[in-house]
UniProtKB/TrEMBL annotation:
Listed GO CC annotations: extracellular region
Protein source organism: Linum trigynum
Protein name as catalogued: Uncharacterized protein
Alphabetical keyword list: Disulfide bond, Endonuclease, Hydrolase, Lyase, Nuclease, Signal
Family, as annotated: Belongs to the RNase T2 family.
Catalytic residue positions: 61, 115, 119
MF annotations from Gene Ontology: hydrolase activity; ribonuclease T2 activity; RNA binding
Described function: May remobilize phosphate, particularly when cells senesce or when phosphate becomes limiting.
GO biological process, one term: RNA catabolic process
InterPro entries according to UniProt: Ribonuclease_T2_eukaryotic, RNase_T2-like, RNase_T2-like_sf, RNase_T2_His_AS_1, RNase_T2_His_AS_2
SUPFAM superfamilies to which the protein is assigned, alphabetical: Ribonuclease Rh-like (SSF55895)
Length: 226
């Protein structure tokens, strides 16, 4: 009996450690949203998807597993490629909230495939393919960045706003500190490009980011129209 109990305990410990190692495959997610006005103002290859020009709103760029030291895993499971049939009920919302602007843009499948293959496969023990995309879409609705900014009087009209006011508006609206990524237009103006928020490694809750990406914005940032 004792031997059997000991073997059972060892098996349970092994299973526990196996589960622990899976959860430790990455430390948190970056949830990244992109302002289309900045992308199309600075990219020569901006193209609207076949469904037409997206709404003037932040679009999902991705949900990216990351480590606390700032590095990240990528392309973790080539045996589990993007399968459109697994997200068939999400396609219309993905086309609206996760649009592609790279040329040739098509219907979005190439963009979503890239995001799943490069990033999603590294979190598949936590979020399967459907959960990965549905979670990102739900986060976009939950965070509602454009509403947070417009409530603070920050409008996408080509005006310039302080970096601190943009961060403060998003933090007030969402409840967590964002990282703001900027790019530069042809005149060298710093533009609001992408907003990073963080999610715990269970894919359940927004958290304060353990580390921010590299990058720097000017003290004044243009919020271009789209």
């Amino acid at each position: 009996m004792k031997a059997s109990s000991g073997a059972l305990i060892q098996a349970l410990v092994a299973l526990s450690l196996a589960g622990l190692s899976v959860s430790k495959d990455f430390d948190f997610f970056y949830f990244v949203q992109q302002w289309p006005g900045s992308y199309c103002d600075t990219e020569q290859s901006c193209c609207y998807p076949t469904t037409g020009k997206p709404a003037p709103d932040f679009g999902v760029h991705g949900l990216w597993p990351n480590y606390n030291d700032g590095t990240y895993p990528s392309n973790c499971d080539s045996s589990n490629p993007f399968d459109q049939s697994k997200v068939s009920d999400l396609i219309s919302k993905m086309q609206k909230d996760w649009p592609t602007l790279a040329c040739p843009s098509g219907n979005g499948v190439t963009f979503w495939s890239h995001e799943w293959d490069k990033h999603g496969t590294c979190s598949e023990e936590v979020l399967d393919q459907h959960s990965y995309f549905s979670k990102a879409l739900a986060l976009k609705t939950q965070t509602n960045l454009l509403q947070a900014l417009t409530t603070a009087g920050i409008e996408a009209n080509g005006g310039s706003y302080s970096l601190s006011s943009i961060k403060s508006a998003i933090q007030s609206g969402v409840g967590y500190t964002p990282f703001i990524e900027c790019n530069s237009d042809e005149s060298g103006n710093s533009q609001l490009y992408q907003v990073y928020l963080c999610l715990d490694n269970s894919g359940s809750n927004l958290i304060e980011c353990p580390v921010f990406p590299n990058g720097k914005c000017g003290s004044q940032i243009e919020f271009p129209s789209f």
